[in-house]
Specification:
- This protein is mainly α and 140 residues long.
- The protein has a domain at 97-140.
- Helix content is 56%, strand content 9%.
- The chain contains 4 helices and 4 strands; from the N terminus they run ββαααββα.
- The strands form 2 sheets. Strands 1-2 form a two-stranded antiparallel ribbon. A two-stranded antiparallel ribbon has the order 3-4.
- A hairpin with a 6-residue loop joins β3 (81-82) and β4 (89-90).
- The longest helix has 42 residues, at 97-138.
- The relative contact order is 0.07.
Length: 140
């Protein structure tokens, strides 16, 4: 497979993509920023994402990506960031407890609807087969 040329999503320069998604210079800069964030979080374990961004001048998406990648999984660290649904501050996962319960309820309702629909189709499908069988007997 030949290497592909791409534009860096950070700086716009053309580079040969090696799987990082950004050019080497931007990647090195990002790694330095991640080191700063990690040090800051070690010293301030109950920080909010906004506090980290304001203190270090880094982009929120960088800190959120680090959280999703599990880079802050250690005892005593509880970085607060907004729930993806309602914006309530949380320290784990993508959604707060209330939104998780709401999503579970919605999923459960959908599953019940699908099961009822499948049962209805199965019953109506068997009636069609029976009436076809009965019609076929008359032709013999």
């Amino acid at each position: 497979m030949s290497p592909k040329l791409k534009n860096c999503s950070n700086c716009g320069r053309i580079f040969v993509d090696t799987g990082l998604g950004i050019c080497r210079d931007c990647h090195e800069k990002e790694e330095e920023e991640m080191q700063k964030v990690s040090s800051y979080v070690r010293d301030n374990p109950h920080s909010r994402v906004r506090d980290i961004c304001d203190a270090l001048g880094v982009k929120e998406r960088l800190v959120m990506r680090m959280i999703r990648e599990g880079r802050f999984v250690m005892d005593g660290v509880a970085i607060e960031y907004p729930c993806e649904s309602c914006g309530t501050l949380i320290t784990v996962g993508r959604f707060c407890d209330k939104c998780n319960r709401d999503l579970q309820a919605q999923l459960s309702q959908q599953q019940q609807k699908l099961a009822a629909q499948a049962a209805k189709e199965k019953v109506s499908g068997s009636k069609v087969i029976r009436s076809l069988d009965m019609g076929m007997k008359g032709f013999r």
